[in-house]
Amino acid sequence: MTSVGERGTEKRLFVLFGIVLVCVVIIIGRLWFLQLARGEYYARLADGNRMRQLRLLPPRGEIADRNGVVLVRSKPAFTVSVVPGGFGSEDEDSLCLLCELLGVTREELDESLEKGKGFPYEPVRIKQDLDPETVIAIEENRINLPGIFIEEEPVREYLYGDLAAHAVGYLGIISPAELQRYGISYRGSDLVGKSGIEQTYEELLRGEIGALTVEVNAMNRPIRTVNVLEPVPGHNITLTLDAHLQQVAEAAFYEHILTLEDNPGTQTGAVLAINPQTGEILAMASVPGFAPENLIDQSQRNSYYGALSQDSRLPFFNRVTQALYGPGSTFKPVTALAILEEGILGAGDRFNATGTSQYGVKDWVINSGLAPFGMINMHDALGMSSNHYFADNGAKVGIDRLSIWMTALGFGASTGLSLFPGEASGLVPSREWKRQAFGN
Predict the structure, then answer these.
(1) Which member of 48, 123, 187, 290 has the lowest number of beta carbons within 10 Å of its beta carbon?
(2) Which 3 state secondary structure label does DSSP give 237?
(3) pLDDT over 90 (residue 22)
């Protein structure tokens, strides 16, 4: 028979075996949970710690004039990026060193890091187009700068400075609304078109993003390339503008305003040259303009944008498409058409242009102290730009019929020009409009 002591020993061994068995089951269960049930999740975490995916930005498409003259292109340049998740509270000295090397304030750096908050292990662009001296300085201090990447990226180059600035447009940091509109391929530090062709055709010019996957060590330094997905360059765009004619138009405008007596050189205005047979825009100048390249230069972007925004002459305002001007004598062909179609006068019928209409409108010859035109027909009236002829005969057409002809010819509606910001449509001064505008 088994003694009482032996039975007690067996009981303790049985309990110990049970405890060991329970521990083994718990360990196996935990291993199953970590490796099978949650294996993919923890694998992603591990990859997040040792893998970095760098976005490869494609060269933005070129913008050229009608003759193939390139106005805007992309050039290779160095960019410094930071992995937000690579810095902790203990890395304050490293962040201060980075600010010193890049010549940016701590507030500007924090603002850039904030843009990448949603992607802690994806590098955020801090500064583009670095000079070689800055690149060398960063590499020399690499041991003190964990999570810093130097990448080669394309940056925008405006080969003719501010030429056709309103037509070409400029780039700026993407806004929250734009980030939501353009989708997941964009990040908070990306540059996007803000006006002109750059904005209107943003998604065509941009191209398709590539990716470079690298493995990093504990110091967040790349040690090997894992995979490369090459970016797809953006589409090139050819304008109807003629670069030479554009230069002539802008130069002529600036030369002219320098000859004016009242604050010479400060006047604003627009120049537009159109091929009347095709409707192609050959020159589009709005004065004053701006330098698009200064708006992507991080060393002066904020101050330059602020100066432009405070300028009372509104340099960002495209006076060709957005301003509303009285047509003056250029409206006379419309009045002439209405006179003919309404049967008021024929093209060869004579009219006695004494120089002053029944409403007091005078011909320019009267204001210049010259003799009136006398008996003239429509051809003469158009050639001489007779205010008297068109004022009296236009009044016979009447406001109601004249407004109908204006509407039929496209007045009061947009032309359909694809350019951001959108064009102002103008107005047709109908009887109802005049009643509302001058009724009081």
Answers:
(1) 48
(2) strand
(3) no
Strands of 364-424 (E only): list them: 374-376
H helices then E strands: how many in the chain?
17, 14
219-223, 300-304, 431-435: least confident range? 219-223
Q: Which residues contact 106 (CB under 8 A, 6 or more apart)?
A: 95, 96, 99
Residue 246's pLDDT band (boundaries 50, 70, 90)? Answer: very high
- pTM across the whole model: 0.80
Write the burial class of residue 277 (CB in 10 Å: 0-12 exposed, 13-18 middle, 19+ buried): exposed
Peptide bond into 288 cis (omega under 30): yes
426 and 379, same structural domain?
yes
Among candidates 194, 196, 193, 195, which has minimal Cα distance to 206? 193
Query: Backbone phi, then psi, for 238, in 5-degree steps?
Result: -105, 125
3-state secondary structure of 156: strand
Q: Is 167 exposed, middle or buried (0-12, 13-18, 19+ CB in 10 A)?
A: buried
Q: Is the dihedral of CA 194, 197, 202, 206 positive or negative?
A: negative
Distance between CA atoms of residues 128 and 84, nearest Å: 17
Q: 95: burial class by Cβ within 10 Å (0-12, 13-18, 19+)?
A: middle
* Residue 151 pLDDT level (bands cut at 50, 70, 90): confident
Q: Are 115 and 189 in contact (CB under 8 A)?
A: yes
Under 8 Å between Cβ of 349 and 378: yes
Nearest one of 48, 45, 50, 116 to 81, comparing CA atoms = 116
Tell me if 38 is assigned to some domain: no
Domains contained in the chain, number: 3
| Residues 227 and 247 reside in one and the same domain | no
Residue 72 tokens read as 């805007």
Identify the three-state secondary structure at position 293.
Answer: helix
The average pLDDT across 422-433 equals 88
* pLDDT tens per residue, range 377-401: 999 999 999 999 999 999 999 999 9
**Size of the chain in residues:** 440
Q: In this predicted structure, what is the pLDDT of residue 298?
A: 76
pLDDT given at position 291: 96
The rounded distance, in Å, linking the Cα atoms of 304 and 294 is: 7
Residues 159 and 225 reside in one and the same domain = yes
d(CA 59, CA 94): 31
Quote the CA–CA distance of 271 and 288 in Å, as a whole number: 11
Q: What is the CATH number of the domain that holds 424?
A: 3.40.710.10
Q: Is residue 6 part of a domain?
A: no
